[in-house]
Amino acid sequence: MLHIKDLNKSFGKNHVLKNLNFSVAPGEVVAIIGPSGSGKSTALRCLNGLEIHESGTITLDGEVLTHDEKSLQTARMKMGMVFQNFHLFPHLTVLENIMFSPINVKKIAKAQAEQQAKELLHRVGLADKAQAYPSQLSGGQKQRVAIARALAMEPEALLFDEPTSALDPEMVNEVLQVMQELAEQGMTMIVVTHEMGFAKEVADRIIFMADGEIVEMGTAQQIIEAPQTDRAKAFLANVL
Amino acid sequence: MSFEFITEYWPLYLQGAGVTLLLAFFTVLLGFAFGILIAFAKLSKRKILSLLATTYIEIIRGTPLLVQMLIIFYMLPAFGVQIPNLFGIAKFGDYSLVVLALVINSSAYIAEIIRGGIQAVDKGQTEAALALGMPKSLMMRKIILPQAIKNILPALGNEFIVIIKESAIVSVVGIMDLMFAAQQVRSATYLAFEPLIMAAVMYFIMTFSLSKVMQYVEGRLAKDATH
Ligand SMILES: Nc1ncnc2c1ncn2[C@@H]1O[C@H](COP(=O)(O)OP(=O)(O)O)[C@@H](O)[C@H]1O
Ligand SMILES: [Mg+2]
To answer: CB within 8 A of B27, min separation 6: which ones?
Structure first.
């Protein structure tokens, strides 16, 4: 479904992504782990065109991602994104946050979009917060709304960039729970995370990145239980 | 000190204050419209547009309003620009020229207010909007600007106050604003400064009331923002 080939990206002289190669199959959950600054966020952001990659190809459903506005927009609709800091729209209610793009971008009828938004809120356990504003929610609730908002576009895959890193510890689980349910329902997911428990339990595959490279890639057992490289060993010794 | 002249001349002051308020009002209105264009030009990815806008802003902010006004007031007619007395308003052409000068001046400041207001909106909002497939124009209209307006409005009110005060220089070219009224009273009564004090009091009443109104509006906005 998603193929990344020889992906490269630099910020000025800083070569941030070096020849990334990997594919994601439909329904697969891929966790990306690695030290801070290793290029995990940049890799995700290249996938839906928030960053413009320099060379290499990203192929989604057989279509190569180009950087004209239309192609980017299509790719973004196919790949939803959930951010570390939620980025809900503060001037819109929870329900409006979720319905906005289905109505204004996908041109779905309002009644239908509202129905769908309510179902999604129910699914993330926040049916009673439809009329609340983001500032009235806890971090965990915000992130669950952000997930519902991304799902409302009916994407083929969801990208998560450290979705629990900005949360107080007691709220991490409610978000991971929602993500686990999504995975079980067959959602294709790429998750940048420091939650090794989640990676181990939910991810079909783990990519370990360091210094802009994919250093190791394999099943959770292979990467977490038996890392091959010194860099992976050192990283895991720190986070586990 | 004697303020007895007020009993005779207060209509002149009121008239002048009315002209001052009208000038300021139209200046803010048109300056806002023009300022939006300049702000977007400056934010544009097109280097030329952005450079033009930056140059305009820097030149206008780097030269005195008085100089700008005199240049426009004397240069345009010298190049054959003639504005007829529309709407039955005497000296309509003169009014237009000073408003034009004030608008050119304030639009540079307002453009910076608008640009700052837009850029103060969290970058994450843009990213979230783009990630949801929004085209840029939709994002700007429905996501960024509604948030930016909360940063922009208070500063715009402040600019209104600044214009009320700065517009006093239009009296130099014979526009009958509040300052001009004060000068007329001075020469009619031979009082050196009392007519000016009266003008100062009236300027202050206008700016102080306006700043109170702005505080109220800001309070409302802040309340909205904390939904
Ligand atoms: N917008 C940017 N401009 C310049 N450098 C950036 C930008 N975003 C990220 N970087 C740099 O790219 C490298 C990788 O960053 P990032 O992808 O955020 O890593 P990670 O998510 O793994 O912590 C870092 O060195 C970071 O400083
Ligand atoms: Mg990151």
So the answer is: B99, B102, B103, B106, B163, B167
What tokens were used for B69? 């006004």
Q: How far is A145 from chain B (nearest CA, A)?
A: 13
The verdict on residue B199 lying in a domain is yes
Residue of B nearest to A48 (CA): B131
Residue A6 token pair: 């020889």
The ligand placed nearest to the CA atom of residue A210 is: 1
Digit-by-digit pLDDT tens for chain A (240 residues) are 899 999 999 999 999 999 999 999 999 999 999 999 999 999 999 998 899 889 999 998 888 888 888 888 888 999 999 999 999 999 999 999 999 999 999 999 999 999 999 999 999 999 999 999 999 999 999 999 999 999 999 999 999 999 999 999 999 999 999 999 999 999 999 999 999 999 999 999 999 999 999 999 999 889 988 889 999 999 998 887
Kindly state whether residue B219 falls inside one of the protein's structural domains. yes
Chain A residues lying within 8 Å of B146, measured CB to CB: 91
Going from the C-alpha of B21 to that of each of B16, B17, B98, B224, the distances in angstroms are 9, 6, 14, 29
Q: How many angstroms separate the CA atoms of A104 and A106, rounded?
A: 6
SS3 state of residue B3 = coil
Interface TM-score (ipTM) > 0.85? yes
Instruction: Judge whether A75 and A52 are in contact, CB under 8 Å.
Output: no
Specify the DSSP class assigned to residue B86. Answer: G
Question: How many domains would you assign to chain B?
Answer: 1
Residue nearest to atom 18 of ligand 1 (CA): A41
Q: Which tokens in the block code for residue B24?
A: 């300021």
Q: Where are the beta strands (DSSP E) in A88-154?
A: none
3-class state of residue A167 by DSSP? coil
Question: What domain range is B208 assigned to?
Answer: 6-226
**Residue B203: which CATH number?**
1.10.3720.10
| Cβ atoms A31, A189 nearer than 8 A | no
Q: Return phi, psi of residue A165, to 5°.
A: -70, -25
CB nearest B142 (choices: A104, A106, A150) = A104
User: B47-61 vs B92-119: helix axis angle to the nearest 10?
Assistant: 120
The model carries a pTM of: 0.85
Count of CB pairs separated by less than 8 Å, A with B = 68
B59 CB-near residues (< 8 Å, 6+ apart): none
To test the pocket of ligand 1, the residue of A7, A9, A42 to mutate (highest count of ligand atoms within 8 Å of its CB) is A42
